[in-house]
């Protein structure tokens, strides 16, 4: 269902963007960078977090790490990563394939400013061997995301 919901999302909203399915896994930043021939920093990893009772997606550069102080200042609390079952329930995507596209219900999406360094980034596409190539601002526009600065410099 997950890869299907992402494919349907792009078919409806951005038919020019192709969902690329690879033979090998791209479930980690290193595997994804290798599978798609890009720098690890160009992998747009999506993290499913909870602050209090709010669940959200934060999309960062593959090599970026959250800065707890910046995050707390921006969102008013410490982030808690959801476990695999919670991630699946919130996104319909498996861990390693989580992305801000094709969600079963709307979630707030935040894109980290580190993604702006690249003309194109590669987020997962709902499966551990699927991704898309997309300009960061286009990802923001398609998902209704907001730019945030919550990673270590």
Description:
This protein is of the alpha/beta class. It is built from five helices and eight strands; from the N terminus they run H-E-H-E-E-H-E-H-E-E-E-H-E. Strands 2, 3, 4, 5, 6 and 8 form a six-stranded mixed sheet that branches. It has a two-stranded antiparallel sheet with strand order 1-7. The longest helix has 12 residues. It is globular and about 40 Å long.
* Major β-sheet annotation: 6 strands, mixed
Q: How many β strands by DSSP?
A: 8
Q: Structural class of the helices, strands and pairings? A: alpha/beta
The mean pLDDT is 96
Walk me through the topology.
Blueprint: H1 2-13, E1 20-21, H2 29-36, E2 43-51, E3 54-61, H3 68-75, E4 80-81, H4 84-91, E5 109-112, E6 122-123, E7 130-131, H5 136-143, E8 146-148
Parallel strand pairs: 2-6, 3-5, 5-8
Antiparallel strand pairs: 1-7, 2-3, 2-4
Defining traits:
153 residues; alpha/beta; six-stranded mixed beta sheet; globular
Q: What's this, in brief?
A:
This protein has 153 residues and is of the alpha/beta class. Helix content is 29%, strand content 21%. The chain is globular, with a radius of gyration of 14 Å.
């Amino acid at each position: 269902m997950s890869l299907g919901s992402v494919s349907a999302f792009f078919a409806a909203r951005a038919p020019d963007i192709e969902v690329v399915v690879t033979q090998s896994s791209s479930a980690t930043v290193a595997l994804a960078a290798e599978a798609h021939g890009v720098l690890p920093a160009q992998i747009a990893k999506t993290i499913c977090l909870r602050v209090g009772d709010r669940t959200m997606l934060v999309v960062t550069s593959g090599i970026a790490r959250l800065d707890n102080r910046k995050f707390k200042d921006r969102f008013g609390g410490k982030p808690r990563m959801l476990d695999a079952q919670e991630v699946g329930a919130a996104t319909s995507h498996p861990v390693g394939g989580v992305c801000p596209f094709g969600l079963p219900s709307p979630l707030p999406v935040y894109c980290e400013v580190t993604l702006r360094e690249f003309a194109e980034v590669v987020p997962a596409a709902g499966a551990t061997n699927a991704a898309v190539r997309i300009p960061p601002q286009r990802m923001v526009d398609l998902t209704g995301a907001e730019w945030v600065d919550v990673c270590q410099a």
